[in-house]
Amino acid sequence: MMIKEKDLIVCYGKRLIDRNLTTGSGGNISIYNREQNLIAISPSGLDYYDTKPEDIVIVDLDKNIVEGNLKPSSELDMHIIFYKNRDDINSIVHTHSKFATAISCMGWELPAVHYLIGMAGSSVGCADYALYGSKALAENALKAAGDNNAALLGNHGLIALGDDVESAFSTAEHLEFVSEIYYLTKSLGEPNIISNKDMADVMKKFGTYKYK
Questions:
Q1: Mean of pLDDT values over 132-138
Q2: Does the keyword Acyltransferase apply (predicted)?
């Protein structure tokens, strides 16, 4: 089942390691097939370079395992809550990238210190801390993301959202860059933040602006 989605998760899981967005088996990736109403998600605790397509777990929105012999990611609730509440989201990439995690450990939102944040929104909110794998964390992440395509997870990491896994991964990677820039500029002083008006222009150009 979902052979294409399984292959993509294996591929992008290795990229998480190669691009220094996580270590070991940290983080997770999922793809939602809305036609089948099924989620393909990386398994819990398995190194990405040891993960094979047959290790990817297929679940439904009620967390029933439809296919797979391994346990799905411990953050399954967080993936499901977005797929249930955001009809524009078909893939999620959760990272433990160094600089985004550092910002989350400060409990800060990530502001528009660089225009590339527009892939996610005019800023990226930080969810209140909750135990990993808990429903509380899922609810906090959904609230922090709002209409945006990402959220920091307090003292934990980053969650990036996309129409497909390519866009979700790209958002995660670019937000790590923006987080590093924010870290560096904060060490120099107070960074110059791009205005909401100017960020709206960026997001319209990116196609990420949410019209209300």
A1: 98
A2: no
